[in-house]
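Hi V.,

You were right to ask for the full record rather than a summary. Here it is.
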Amino acid sequence: MQKPDFGLAFLWSDFDVVIERLDLKISNLHCINKALRFKSSNVVCDLISYACLVHGMILMMHLIEIQVVDLFLRFAAVGQLGLLIAFFSRNITALSAANITVTLCVICYVLLTAPIGNSHYGGFRHVLLLFTDLTPFATVWYALGHLNPQFKLDRIPKWILTVVLLWLGWLVYFFLVLGGRGMFHDFNHALGVMLLCYVIYLCISEFNGDLDNERRNTRVMLVALCSLYMIGLVIFEFTLKSVRDSWQFSLVNSLMIFSAVFLVCAKEMFSRFEILAPQPLVAAQAHAEHNNQLSTAKVRQMLPGQTENLERLMAQGAFLETDLTVNNLARQLGLPAHQLRHLINQQLGFSNFSDFLNSYRIPWVCEQLADASKRHLPILTLALEAGYGSIAPFNRAFKTKMGLTPTEYRDQF
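Predicted structure:
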């Protein structure tokens, strides 16, 4: 049987293996030979379709039954993640773009780590490898956007953005052109570990001051768990490669991915299914307003008079206490910490405890700066008396609220 050359010579070795393994009958071989000799415009398309079928059959021959289960879990997870991307794409914002990027990176990781030989991926493997290695960068973007409602890319110093863009451009060249071979691959893994550690630090450092219960209980925990999980996987790249390449690790990995993806999809999509009804924006706004009204009414019913008690305590100077936390303030009020968070968030409209404290501390400092009798006092002294542990967070908070530095504000008087 003469094999026509359509640039698909690399497929014919697999074709011969399949013919041998399947023990095709002579009559079938005669039909195939006759079809291949038929010169028409559809021959190339037929060959490509046949080659894809052959590759799929060969792949299934090399997989054990448990690995088929592994693939099923992975493809099911990819399908759910694809629906999640479609859900996020309904309203493109900076935050939804971060969600889409992280989801795309997870899809590429799921496909890249499937129990399939690298030769079956072809050049597409380089694309999967690129997005997999971009996961730590996407996770940082996702974490900053979800943990800080005021976060905007244009507020990042330009030199940091320049360095990040140059490095991302190098990674594109390194993986797509050079195939990801070289010492920079391991270096990028090490950099990824540091970035994910930074995400975990953000989650822990801002956890106590976060007044949004949903963000505390879902997004912060999700970012922390995903970061820990990705760090564990990157560690396997350095030390336990034999474990990483085993079918047991692959199966457990796919099962964890499928479970996590299912839970995330259930939260992000099913809990908001009513938003998919006609006039989604109106329905979403009405739904949000209804929930806010219920939450406010619930707080007022649970905590009668506690808002007045809180305001009275702050007027007495409780905010001047250094390192004041939600737990400390709750003890002074005789309230559970979670009720105080809910009170400040729903009744007073603050999403972060530090913003709540700044609403008292900054006006107090402004009074001291405007007092001519206290002009001799250093700004650092006033910052420490206001409850700040150092000058840096005070300067940032003052500039954000007043639009001036403390020195510029004092010079007005």
